[in-house]
Amino acid sequence: MEVVITALGPDNVGLADPIIHHVTGQGARIAEIQMYDHDEEHLFAMLCRIDIPATEFDRLSDAMRQIGEVTGLAIRVWSSELRAERPRLAVCCTYLEHTPRAILEAVRDGGINADVPVVISNRKKLAPMAAEFGAAFEMIGDGQGTSNDALMVELLDRYEVDYVVLARYMRILPPSTCWQFAGGRIINLHHGLLPGFPGFRPYHDAYGARMLTFGATCHFIIPELDAGNQTINQRTFAVSPGTKLDEVIRIGESENEPACLTEGVRRVIDREVYLHFHRVVARKAK
Amino acid sequence: MEVVITALGPDNVGLADPIIHHVTGQGARIAEIQMYDHDEEHLFAMLCRIDIPATEFDRLSDAMRQIGEVTGLAIRVWSSELRAERPRLAVCCTYLEHTPRAILEAVRDGGINADVPVVISNRKKLAPMAAEFGAAFEMIGDGQGTSNDALMVELLDRYEVDYVVLARYMRILPPSTCWQFAGGRIINLHHGLLPGFPGFRPYHDAYGARMLTFGATCHFIIPELDAGNQTINQRTFAVSPGTKLDEVIRIGESENEPACLTEGVRRVIDREVYLHFHRVVARKAK
Amino acid sequence: MEVVITALGPDNVGLADPIIHHVTGQGARIAEIQMYDHDEEHLFAMLCRIDIPATEFDRLSDAMRQIGEVTGLAIRVWSSELRAERPRLAVCCTYLEHTPRAILEAVRDGGINADVPVVISNRKKLAPMAAEFGAAFEMIGDGQGTSNDALMVELLDRYEVDYVVLARYMRILPPSTCWQFAGGRIINLHHGLLPGFPGFRPYHDAYGARMLTFGATCHFIIPELDAGNQTINQRTFAVSPGTKLDEVIRIGESENEPACLTEGVRRVIDREVYLHFHRVVARKAK
Amino acid sequence: MEVVITALGPDNVGLADPIIHHVTGQGARIAEIQMYDHDEEHLFAMLCRIDIPATEFDRLSDAMRQIGEVTGLAIRVWSSELRAERPRLAVCCTYLEHTPRAILEAVRDGGINADVPVVISNRKKLAPMAAEFGAAFEMIGDGQGTSNDALMVELLDRYEVDYVVLARYMRILPPSTCWQFAGGRIINLHHGLLPGFPGFRPYHDAYGARMLTFGATCHFIIPELDAGNQTINQRTFAVSPGTKLDEVIRIGESENEPACLTEGVRRVIDREVYLHFHRVVARKAK
């Protein structure tokens, strides 16, 4: 069983040692280790991917919990194989309804074989949508839309979420959240073609470049963001010369983005692709 | 009638004066003038777009011919309205057959309402294709594929070509050729999405950026190449993660590029779009 | 005498005709014409550079004034040779004092052979600086710093300004202003190396790219902004690894930018460089 | 003592396990682990930075040698503290003499406190320069200049080299070489300002962008090349408008590059900077 351990701490002294010591002591095979030390942000993190017999998972989890308690590190143990048949998604959104609704509908209609126990948002607007699909709605924003990132992490744990789907969620996740759910668990929909149009206004940027093709990108978010390498799905549409920007955005948001994200999430849930050493890899057919 | 006059000369002394003097003396309305002086390349050029009664076209052409003879300038007079019902295309190509063949087939089948009197190439390979469609084949390359650009210009005049279609023609047109056929007469197929992937290996570049969407761009070439603003048509296709580059290129060359170029040329021939002050503009429906 | 005529109008009908007709009728040699038509912005403009005997300048100005009155076009006639011995500068600024003060000091101390009749700003802060150097201070900002661009143009005319020096003036000039003073009359100080760092926060961007060299660029502003081609002067400084961003900005603003802009303005005023067909050219030594 | 262990293998099975197992078993503190798996290139690598008592260094080296022999991995153990007083440099070069000579002179004159036991080149041209400074000259190129990268690694080991200085060495090091000397041991001189001008012709590119400032960058090479983050030193020079490219290159190669590289190498040798989690960090003054 392939297991991902992530650890996060306030300094780099003793971050890796107890975890790696335990893991190697148990005879686990280490498949990948990545560490991160950004002194300026006081963020020290590690991802450790290992192979163990499935029967050992619970014991490993217990051991890591104890290490976490002793050391004060935030440690998580997770495997994509745990709930492979029906993983649990958190859908994160803000104001725009098209993409989160598309995910909820695909889950309801069977296109995506998963459950959505929770919809998380920094704005109240889409609470009725969550209710419509029987998902809990958790508000993490204050009045101005600023998100409580610590609360989001807490919610992801409480609802035992496997994958976080950012469906036009208009906040940037801090590196600490990305590291805690590292290993291919955070799926984002960017409303432009990456890597060419990375900013906040990709429709405007592509339109300003007088392009006639517009696109969306579904990708894993990894802690140090060099988006582009982690593409899961891209989808485009073309318009005729003279098409107004409003119409471009309308097509993009209502048709192209939902289809792009839904197919991307499906690829992950159906285990067609996964994140391997910072890159999306297609799983070989059995 | 909208008429485009282009002039090219070896220095900038007296380039514009005789032409503009004549044109304003005849009472023509000047819609656009662009001049270019690049001392380092000894290239001085002008584009002048004017409105005149259609009955004046021949007289203007004669006058410009005389000015050209006296001054030594290379002057051309052209109007998209001259042969609007059935313009004449030159198809320029090198080795790759998909895109030039697509144009020839679309012309034969009526998708593009034009004639192709000549296929121009810097390599012999596609001579049989020209013969198959009843077009003359003109070779402008030496043994190494280096093109005789002056001969190309001569051929475009001799065959009374309205539009030059670069269908994976693998040479860069020199600025002097671009200026002589300025005003929206040179249509290029670039095998990548502009402006993001402008180079010689756009499939490789997009693949290296780990994109899952690839595209082609049909655009007017203008003398000072800031490609991107002159897009006539763009077309894309998506692939699954894990698709090999060979397969990407195969789909792109055999399916996407031909469809992209054919539709782009059709838009120009059907007068849906035209070049206006360096930008592609959609003609308002009547 | 080389004369620049600029014209600006609300539509492109009849913009160029009367001016060009008059100019060619007088036998002037046309050295350069550029026209601009951006339907979306309702901005139609022309720059026309001609050679005439100096004795004809006043007559030309009168004629253009009359054409302007009749047609409603905004027409300007200017020659860099008019006040070549001691041109008149407008120094435009906002909050930062280092660069405008450097220009005023260089003028006072003789490093720049020019006069500064007016300091223009969208903020009140630097009014005392203008007073200190005996220049008028003209406020064009409302309370929020939004500039009255039409008033700026009026002031530039009223003070008979030859060159506009943007010394950390933190507003973008609209295209209409750029066109009215086209031909190499607007000199900007950008606080980053162009073309690599074009944005609003070039120190932050270069620092984020972990560079150890930072720079400033003095350049002509031309109507369609492809900054980089119009560089008059660039100046850099290096820092040691570990230098804080604050210190980088302090050195840049207090030492590097003033020196960069002062030398750039001097080059223009001393007629070492000029703008020729959108490019900066070094004037040949006599 | 901070020790860097690098390991390289043909597959990722069992790459990390024996090394990490040994290290943790000995009680070493793990400061950094980075792993790399690029299936397409069959390259699997690890960097492991640990803290041990200096007295343990030899024992660790022995253990790693044994693990290497048993597993077939290429393992290296190194510490910057080993020969901190006088580290050993390999100077790698091709045709251009300015930068390698500058290093050799600085070493001779005491500006750089190091020894240069060997000059390595893929061309014979600079053999006399090596002789002049009493360094061995090792040729790793075939007749066409293609380098024998395996031989280079062998030579670096044979001459017990601490730091590899690429002084206009015109070959790209393969990732396997970069990984084997990871951890801040390979210092490159790039003849342009990074990250803006990364290519093979940075002088031409900057000149083509009509810049008036040109620069050079001294940086660590890290295995996955996102050059720019690893800058050790940058140095620039400015030219007047109208300066020819030949003159720019002459100044750059003969004056700016040697000074840039010499100061960069000095900073590393004097332990002012080091590579820490992919970034250059200034060592705090004691």
Give an overview in words.
4 copies of one chain form a homotetramer. The first copy, chain A, has 286 residues and is an alpha/beta fold. In chain A, 31% of the residues lie in helices and 29% in strands. Chain A is built from 8 helices and 13 strands. In chain A, the strands form 3 sheets. A 7-stranded mixed beta sheet of chain A has the order 7-6-5-8-9-10-11, sandwiched between helices. The first copy, chain A, has a 4-stranded antiparallel beta sheet with strand order 2-3-1-4. The mean pLDDT of chain A is 92. At the C-D interface, strand 11 and strand 13 of C face strand 11 and strand 13 of D.
Give a topology summary:
Four copies of one chain form a homotetramer.
Chain A: E1 2-9, H1 17-25, E2 29-38, E3 43-51, H2 57-71, E4 74-78, E5 88-93, H3 98-109, E6 115-121, H4 127-132, E7 136-139, H5 149-158, E8 163-166, H6 175-180, E9 186-190, H7 202-208, E10 213-220, E11 231-238, H8 245-269, E12 273-276, E13 279-282
Parallel strand pairs in A: 5-6, 5-8, 6-7, 8-9
Antiparallel strand pairs in A: 1-3, 1-4, 2-3, 9-10, 10-11, 12-13
Largest interface: A-B, 30 and 30 residues
Tally of DSSP β-strands of chain A: 13
Spans of at least 5 consecutive residues with low confidence of chain A: none
* Assembly form of the protein: homotetramer
In short:
4 copies of one chain form a homotetramer. Chain A has 286 residues and is α/β, with parallel strands linked by helices.
Q: Which key phrases capture this entry?
A:
homotetramer, 286 residues, alpha/beta, seven-stranded mixed β-sheet, four-stranded antiparallel β-sheet, 13 strands
